[in-house]
Structure formats: C-alpha cells, structure tokens
Amino acid sequence: MAQVGWLDPEIEHDKWTDGPADQDDLEELLEVALVKAQAWAPKPLPAATADDPVPGNYRFAQRLLARHLWARKQAGDGEGFGADGYMIQTYPLVREAYDAIRPKQGPLAGLL
C-alpha cells in the first residue's frame, strides 16, 4: 500500500487498535489530516526523500489530526450526559498537532 502523505497506512493500522477497521476509511482520514497539517505547516514543506526525511513532528501531527477526525466521527455532535451530568467533549489533539508542527515561542508560549 502506498504512503499517504507522511505516514504509511499499514503501519498506522497496526499501531491504532481502536481506529477504523476499513483500510479505505483510514486512508481517507490520513489524507484529510495531511491537508490540514500542510495548511498549518511553515512553507516550504520538507520533502520526503532518503536524504531528507520528513521531520517526526510532521508525522506526529498528521497522526494526531487523523485520530482527532476519527474521534469526532465516532462521537457525533459531542454532547451527552456523563456521570456528573451534561457534558461537552473536547478534542485537544488539534491544538497538540498544530503545536507539533509550529511550536509556540515566547515567554507565554505554554500558557496560551
């Protein structure tokens, strides 16, 4: 199977036990995650060659975004009733993925 962006779907399928069972669904998630990651990444994007591998933080970001999209798909509208009453689920993986690609800098970077 061909690589989707910065990740190999077969490897991701093996690592992601609670992810999509269907390989086509996984590839679609990886494609959408790649587009989102590329839009956020500083330009120019790194080329994936043997001499110049893609930085690990880019692969990590694509993986987090794919998992975020899958979680959103599984959760529906994200509203429900938990043990403590009404709750709205949050999805921190997007912020984490964007921070992996373009880390915040400055004295207040970790606070905002």
Notes on the protein architecture:
48% of the residues lie in helices and 7% in strands. It has four helices and two strands, in the order αααββα. The protein has a two-stranded antiparallel sheet. The protein is flat. The termini are far apart. The mean pLDDT is 80.
Low-confidence stretches: none
What is the number of E strands? 2
Rounded average pLDDT? 80
SSE succession = HHHEEH
Strand content: 5-15%
Topology:
Elements: H1 9-15, H2 23-40, H3 56-75, E1 79-82, E2 85-88, H4 93-101
Antiparallel strand pairs: 1-2
In a few lines, what is going on in this structure?
The chain has helices at residues 9-15, 23-40, 56-75, 93-101, and strands spanning 79-82, 85-88. It has 112 residues and is mainly α. The longest helix is centred in the middle third of the chain and has 20 residues, at 56-75.
Fill in the keyword field for this structure.
single chain, 112 residues, mainly alpha
